[in-house]
Design a protein that fits this description.
single chain, alpha/beta, Protocatechuate 4,5-dioxygenase, Chain B, eight-stranded mixed beta sheet, two-stranded antiparallel sheet, 9 helices, globular
Amino acid sequence: MGELVLAAKCTHVPTMLMSEQPGRLEGARKPAIDGHREIARRAKELGAATVVICDTHWVINAGYHINANHRFEGLFTSNEFPQFIQDLEYAYEGNAALGDAIASAAMDKGVFCLSHQIDSLELEYGTLVPMRFMSREADFKVVSVAAWCTVHSYETSRKIGEAIREAVEASDEKVLLVASGSLSHKIWANDDYEANNGTFTISSEFNRQVDLHVLEMWKRGEIATFLKMLPEYAEYCCGEGSMHDTAMLFGALGWDAYTGKGEVVTEYFPSSGTGQVNVIFPVE
């Protein structure tokens, strides 16, 4: 019987890649990189061989979609930030059977979901950035779930999370689940970016304060209360991908019945106006 061994909410800011390159950002995101590696180390110790990543950089406009190819290999340049992520090499094994099983479990719940094995369907950087650092700790397989959901409800995203858990437990797999996205996500206006040292600052004090409050709720285990405010939090604080990755994460963990407490492994930091963090959630 399979097992979801660990879950985490993770940052995927491009400056993590730049942090390992010579220049003014060298070393700047080491805490975030260390956080990814710590999550991967713990998952490996618990026997995880596959990472399922709910990716808020994969935009979808109808249904839910899973990139479950047998293997992923290529060069990636971000069309959003080509100056930040350029010719990023990657090569990972996929887990097509698990991706197909997740889609099937979602369909059984009445949620339209397709699993794809298409060589030209590339991974997005919400998957590639965590995998770059987590794969240094173990040779994980990867399944990517689209989580930039434009016309979807939190209820159906919760069911996608439930489907992930059910598919894992019906398999022989041990799996790490990652919700890849920021907290607040109001990127600095282009005209204001340079004047406000945008790479290292938050664009809204309101957003920062709400982010910090949410983290305290997570650390205290007040998940049921957080889920009541999730839709408004995502709306008013511009949550990345409307925070459907987070709905999927808590759907897999048990939604409002979940009583676990979040463990912050990378302290909250601002990036390009947004609020970022790495948080581990134990699986009950």
